[in-house]
Write a structure and sequence with these properties.
alpha+beta; FAD/NAD(P)-binding domain; binds flavin-adenine dinucleotide
């Protein structure tokens, strides 16, 4: 339900109604229907209801793993999301200009799809519609949480919405305000940050040939290039590109006109989908591995990018956050059943322990893939080719790799 001024007290306040905050609020409201907690979601940008962008739901696309599909299915959202996705039926991994490639297929993995690609703006519309229709979630946007301070048994939040200021008390604050969090700075929650010295150039492209639901991960001299299948639109064979380039070269790529960019892209990607016909507007994101030094405090839990921002190479960021959400919702539901306060440290600690293995595993998987495939040192090239050869020759290795990519390893 959309509100313009909040009440004084909430059981839970979610800071940030992006992909993670909105998914968490909805999942929790579904899980706790009987006990009806009152939940407030505060989002800095106006909600999207049509194709125009809210900060979390920008021009990017996201590869949702099969595991994420199961999570959205379990909270009754998959039907709406499914209308907006393109399935990934095959993933082809190759190293440009060198031997070594492998292919994962849904048939071999015995699943309906290896994953699904959704445009962030479309996922945003689905999530925002659910928030505005939910009876148990109050959605305040645009509004900014300016300050959070600990109180006995909860947190006090200062909210600014236009010319209005509000103070709200919450039993639990779920911080889902993304990778650059002034609130963490205020609370003295440190981050360990390692820059990859790379930027991701994002754009959509139309190709001569249909993608046949195939995703390509191609390792080029600058870094990995992912070409992901999008839903057909206006008869165009559209794909979403995530092209990792060295930080010092990204301005050069961004300044290329469409024709020049198409030549560079065609040269790196090859003719897998015939000629590149058209490219859309380009966006650039600096890439780093950032990890919060604390994920919980009494009455506070960090979710999504504010807790861990990963390199997009393996498409793990949102997928991992959705598994965190599933674990947190289940932990909070048990606390409610046992009539324990939601912000209780012992409860939050159980959540962190539950997710520790999955988080460490996903961080390691993404970080090592990034480092292995991002430079052409002779030792890395050899390891890469051995890796691709092993995947190609050993179905069991392909299965393990596919399970990690599909987000079903930790389930
Ligand atoms: C190029 C690229 C490609 C990616 N591809 C994939 C992929 O294929 N698969 C995958 O799983 N992941 C992918 N990711 C990762 C994924 O995008 C992130 O995991 C996800 O965006 C994290 O969402 P979030 O809600 O935590 O943060 P954000 O998306 O940053 O959202 C934070 C929200 O909080 C709001 N906010 C901030 N401060 C305040 C405040 N003080 N008060 C109120 N509101 C506030 C913001 O307006 C924003 O809406 C990719 C990332 C990049 C950069």
């Amino acid at each position: 339900m959309i509100i313009s001024s909040p009440e004084n007290n909430y059981d839970i306040v979610v800071v940030g109604g992006g992909m993670v905050g909105a998914s968490f609020a909805y999942a929790l409201s579904k899980s706790l229907t009987a006990s009806c907690p009152n939940i407030l979601v505060v989002e800095a940008t106006a909600p999207i209801t049509d194709i125009c962008f809210q900060s979390s739901f920008d021009a990017r696309s996201t590869a949702l793993s099969f595991g994420s599909r199961l999570i959205y299915e379990s909270i009754g959202l998959w039907e709406e999301i499914e209308e907006q996705v393109s399935p990934i039926c095959e993933i082809r991994v190759s190293d440009r200009g060198r031997f070594g490639s492998t292919c994962l297929t849904r048939e071999e993995q015995g699943t309906e799809a290896l994953g699904y690609v959704v445009e962030n703006a479309n996922l945003g519309i689905v999530l925002n519609t659910q928030l505005s229709e939910s009876e148990s979630i109050a959605h305040l946007a645009p509004a900014i949480i300016e300050k959070i301070s600990p109180k006995e048994e909860g947190m006090r939040l200062e909210i600014v919405a236009g010319d209005n200021r509000f103070q709200v008390l919450a039993g639990l604050v779920v911080l889902a305000d993304g990778g650059r969090s002034p609130i963490c700075d205020q609370l003295g929650i440190g981050q360990s940050k390692e820059s990859y010295n790379q930027h991701a150039i994002i754009t959509n492209a139309a190709f001569e040939l249909p993608h046949q639901f195939c995703a390509f991960e191609r390792f080029t001299d600058t870094g990995p290039l992912a070409v992901l299948p999008l839903r057909e639109f206006n008869g165009e064979n559209r794909c979403s590109l995530v092209w990792t380039v060295r930080a010092e070269e990204s301005a050069e790529y961004m300044e290329l006109d469409d024709e020049e960019f198409i030549v560079k892209l065609q040269n790196s990607f090859g003719n897998h989908l015939g000629a590149v016909i058209q490219v859309g507007e380009k966006f650039c994101y600096p890439l780093s591995l950032s990890l919060a030094k604390e994920q919980i405090r009494p009455s506070l839990v960090l979710l999504g990018n504010v807790a861990h921002t990963l390199h997009p190479v393996a498409g793990q960021g949102l997928n991992l956050a959705l598994r965190d959400i599933e674990a947190l919702v289940s932990t909070l539901s048990s606390a409610v059943t046992q009539q324990k306060p939601l912000g209780d440290m012992a409860t939050l600690q159980r959540y962190v322990e539950k997710q520790d293995f999955d988080q460490q595993n996903s961080i390691r998987f993404t970080d090592s893939l990034t480092k292995l495939f991002s430079n052409n040192k002779q030792s890395n090239v050899i390891l890469r080719q051995l890796g691709l050869l092993t995947l190609e020759l050993l179905p069991s290795a392909r299965k393990t790799f596919a399970e990690q990519a599909m987000g079903i390893m930790a389930r």
